[in-house]
Amino acid sequence: MNAFEYECKRQHEQYSRLVADGFSIVDDPANLAQHIGTLVDVECFTSIWTPRLLCKLYVSGTEHLEHSFHLVPLHQIVRWSFEVPQPGDTFTSKFVIGTRRVGDYEMVPALRLPLK
Description:
By secondary structure, the protein is an alpha+beta fold. It has two helices and six strands. It has helices at 3-20, 74-81, and strands at 24-25, 39-49, 54-59, 70-73, 90-103, 106-112. A hairpin with a 2-residue loop joins strand 5 (90-103) and strand 6 (106-112).
């Protein structure tokens, strides 16, 4: 099993556990929820790098929604996509669609990459 297959499996299992515990998707402006647990080509707009080298990414078409950003470590993008996204650039890469908890029983879709 390669790293992307493992991450897809892990994210699908996490989503299933959260749904079983009563969690629900509360916001999905990029329409990613249907792809949770799968590997998808996503076009992203890079807004900024944070001081801790996280890339603040927006799925193309959601840049105008301030709350719809995803934070992805730059080193993971470089390792898995062979891209060094600069602020203001748009790029397409493969991401595993997972979830992120945002409330007591709320979650949102999230862009994930394998850790190793």
